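Quick one:
INPUT:
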């Protein structure tokens, strides 16, 4: 070992006497020291910035999924989807037995069509950026980030929530077209509604760059975007179809056929009320906004209660009878109306919004009856008329205490204030602009669609098919096969007596 060390030392002294070797060593060592100095300097200058960005700025560049808000949004989506059960029960119960199977098949088909089209392009049209009129990216949900914008909710979870809303708008449409719409017509108008009309016009209010949103128009959960659009399309469908055979209006000495199963209809209405707790509170998209969720849930409940009682007592004052059907449509009108302003109003506002919703809904029923427009379920008064009122009510009753909801709570830096709380006419004007433009555009496009289908002879079934009943004619099945036909006036059993007292004029085809 000693010999090796002595040899190495001798070689080092010998090499260091050589000028060329000394120069090379100096160059190599100098370069290494210079490089090390540059590295240490760079670390001293830039490392604190990198660490700060990693700790404080990661959420701004890479969206973080919020598990609690995601679960909350999905649970709300499931509640909204349960409203499909309520819709088919409400419509089937309040219609005639001969079209019950048709209503159920339509509801299922509409849901399936909506799911495919909303995945393919509907979501992109509505919720992705592009122009103030329509989204232009994200088709088939391709090329999107892990979360929807800054919500902290995965895109696919947000899609499920919004799919349930789109499905609701499509189902509303069928309510005014019951009893005489052909099934091919239903498939084709469903494609038009969920693939184009609802997402494109809805982009104006809910899209990230929609032109109505830029003008401070607010619609928290869809009095305009869902209900007014769906109600306007149903009005266009009812106008294009015309009334059912044998339908005599009040001004002509008749009235609407009675519901074939009020129990099923009323239970369907209550299921819809239950689903509304996903519709409205779920639109916060945040379980962390606990105060907002509680306020929205309370306002939703109070508006439905005040509207239901107003309809109940109105029916008694008018006919001296406590009308179940009108009461159900009353609390549904209250729910539709409160859907827009529920986040920004207080309990007093919710109470009066619900009462007023009942009155505008009843006036809507009377107007349709006078104009001889056949709406078997009351879809137009409940969803279109009450939806318009609810949208305008925000410009009256918004308290000025709350702004837009965020993933963690309400943003109070910019609040929404209505006329009754010192906000002037600004918000009311924005609400009127949003409601009018949405309803007008929907009506024009829907009338074109419905009359095109009518002239293509696919919108309405033949006279023979309508007399036979849509269940048997379109689907080859009866909802109540155990009931034998009761005679020539009833093709679908003893439950089908609903229209018999109405068609008293021999010149009108009996149902």
């Amino acid at each position: 070992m000693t010999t090796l060390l002595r040899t190495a030392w001798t070689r080092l002294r010998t090499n260091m006497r050589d000028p060329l070797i000394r120069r090379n060593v100096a160059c190599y060592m100098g370069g290494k020291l210079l490089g090390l100095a540059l590295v240490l300097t760079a670390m001293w200058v830039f490392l604190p910035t990198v660490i700060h960005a990693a700790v404080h700025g990661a959420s701004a560049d890479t969206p973080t999924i919020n598990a609690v808000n995601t679960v909350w949004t999905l649970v709300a989506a499931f509640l909204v989807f349960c409203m499909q059960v309520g819709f088919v029960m409400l419509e089937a119960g309040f219609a005639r037995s001969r079209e019950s199977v048709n209503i159920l098949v339509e509801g299922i088909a509409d849901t399936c069509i909506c799911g495919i089209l909303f995945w393919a392009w509907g979501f992109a049209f509505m919720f992705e950026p592009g122009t103030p009129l329509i989204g232009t990216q994200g088709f088939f949900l391709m090329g999107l980030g892990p979360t929807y914008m800054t919500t902290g909710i995965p895109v696919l979870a947000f899609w499920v929530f919004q799919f349930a809303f789109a499905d609701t708008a499509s189902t509303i449409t069928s309510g005014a077209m019951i009893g005489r719409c052909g099934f091919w017509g239903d498939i084709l108008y469903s494609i038009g509604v969920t693939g184009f009309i609802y997402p494109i016009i809805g982009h104006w209010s809910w899209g990230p760059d929609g032109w109505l949103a830029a003008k401070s128009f607010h619609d928290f959960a869809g009095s305009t975007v869902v209900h007014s659009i769906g109600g306007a399309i149903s009005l266009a469908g009812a106008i294009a179809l015309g009334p059912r055979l044998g339908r005599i209006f009040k001004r002509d000495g008749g009235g609407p056929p009675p519901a074939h199963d009020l129990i099923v209809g009323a239970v369907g209405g209550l299921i819809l009320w239950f689903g509304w707790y996903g519709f409205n509170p779920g639109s916060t998209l945040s379980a962390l906004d606990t105060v907002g969720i509680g306020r929205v849930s309370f306002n939703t409940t109070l508006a439905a209660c005040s509207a239901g009682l107003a309809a109940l007592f109105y029916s008694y004052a008018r006919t001296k009878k406590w009308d179940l059907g009108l009461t159900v449509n009353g609390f549904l009108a209250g729910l539709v109306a409160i859907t827009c302003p529920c986040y920004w109003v207080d309990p007093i506002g919710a109470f009066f919004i619900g009462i007023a919703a009942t009155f505008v809904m009843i006036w809507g029923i009377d107007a349709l009856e006078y104009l001889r427009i056949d709406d078997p379920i009351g879809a137009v008064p409940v969803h279109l008329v009450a939806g318009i009122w609810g949208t305008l009510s925000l410009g009256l009753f918004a308290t000025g205490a709350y702004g837009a909801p965020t993933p963690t709570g309400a943003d109070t830096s910019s609040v929404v204030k209505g006329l009754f709380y010192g906000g002037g006419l600004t918000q009311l004007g924005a609400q009127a602009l949003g409601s009018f433009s949405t309803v007008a555009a929907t009506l024009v496009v829907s009338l074109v669609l419905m009359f095109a289908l009518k002239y293509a002879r696919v919108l309405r079934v033949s006279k023979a098919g309508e007399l036979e009943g849509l269940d048997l004619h379109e689907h080859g099945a009866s909802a109540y096969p155990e009931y034998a036909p009761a005679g020539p006036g009833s093709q679908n059993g003893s439950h089908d007596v609903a229209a018999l007292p109405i068609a008293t004029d021999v010149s009108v085809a009996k149902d």
